[in-house]
Amino acid sequence: MTDLGTLGGTYSYARAINERGQVVGAASTGDGSQHAFRWTPAGGMQDLGTLGGIYSDARAINEQGQVVGAASTADGSQHAFRWTPAGGMQDLGTLGGAESYAWGVNEKGQVVGSASTEDGPQHAFRWTSSGGMQDLGTLGGSWSGSNSVWSGTINDRGQVVGSASTADGGRHAFRWTPSGGMQDLGTLPGGTYSDAYGINARGQVIGLSSTPDTLGGYHPFLWTPSLGMQDLGGLGGYQSGATVINASGQVAGWSITADDQTHSFQWTPVHGIQDLGTLGGDGTYGTPVSLTTGINDRGQVIGSAYTATGQHHAYQWTRSDGMKDLGTLGGPNSYAWGINARGQVTGDSDTPVGTRHAFLWTP
């Protein structure tokens, strides 16, 4: 585990990593502001600046080193940005309102996020260099959003997923395509709402949907163009959700177990749903003993889990070795947020002096 440092301040945190080992996130500066950063093995931590304000935050990076997130403007509002090595930070604007936020970017440089409209409600958007910011609409209601913190909500085909309100006031997962527009993915049988959190290059979508369970249950789903929405089940409890998916259709997420603990899981078409275990910790309902935040194309899963001593540590899980404790930067806790195909993991960790720093863990 390598400490990536700060921008002159006391803290930093990482949110994503690409296949070249470049990391993005945000860090405090010497004057107490927070700026987005891109860290590279050759150049270290680079300040990406702001849009005229004092704040910025990076959330995703593609293989070309293009970064997206949000930054404050001179008038104090928050706008989505795309940063490129050649052009610096570009304001992507809004949909007529005051605010916007970018959550994902694909290899074509297309950006997805959410923005406020002139009438007030937020709508999901897709931004392209040729067409600018496009309103993706709703499912008949007033709002829509594409804002997962765990996984990519846009694939390289320009397909976008998220959640949108329906004409009857409900909330349904959607998949938007350039040719077909916004498609309602529905819910699991008997459910009333659903949310989509990720999409892969094959157009497979994951998320969660409510079920008829009288206790307010919901289950993870995998939606495919040919089969529709499939219930992936759970680990014995009545609440679970899928958070990430890879190119092969392997899914990871979290589930409440029969004894009311929250565990990470991986689901594959071959093995079904599998409990990834813990790092020795336990808890009761509402306490996430282990959570999932990422998966790469090799099926390696990352997240954070409680240890037997009550600390929260980043982990990497593989089918051959199980859950591996990635340790910390000397403090009690660490959290993993991104993984690439090489198995490099990024996140943030407590330091011995009580601050939080971004890290890069390399096998």
Task: Name the descriptors.
mainly beta, 363 residues, globular, single chain
User: Any low-confidence stretches, pLDDT <50, length ≥5?
Assistant: none
Structural class of the secondary elements? Answer: mainly beta
Number of beta strands: 32
Instruction: State the distance separating the first and last CA atoms.
Output: 9 Å
Strand content: over 45%
Computed over alpha carbons, the radius of gyration is 20 Å
Could you give a short account of the major beta sheet? 4 strands, antiparallel
> Helical region count?
0
Provide mean pLDDT, rounded: 95
* Strand order in the largest sheet: 1-32-31-30
Shape: globular
Kindly state the percentage of residues in helix.
under 10%
Tell me what the structure shows.
The protein has about 375 residues and is mostly beta strands. About 0% of the residues lie in helices and about 55% in strands. The protein contains no helices and 32 strands. It has strands at about 1-5, 10-15, 25-30, 35-40, 45, 50-60, 65-75, 80-85, 90, 95-105, 110-115, 120-130, 130-135, 140-145, 160-165, 170-175, 180-185, 195-200, 205-210, 220-225, 230, 235-245, 250-255, 260-270, 270-275, 290-295, 300-305, 310-320, 320-325, 335-340, 345-350, 355-360. The strands form 8 sheets. Strands 1-32-31-30 form a 4-stranded antiparallel beta sheet, with no helix packed on it. A 4-stranded antiparallel beta sheet has the order 2-3-4-5, with no helix packed on it. The protein is globular and about 50 Å long. The mean pLDDT is about 95.
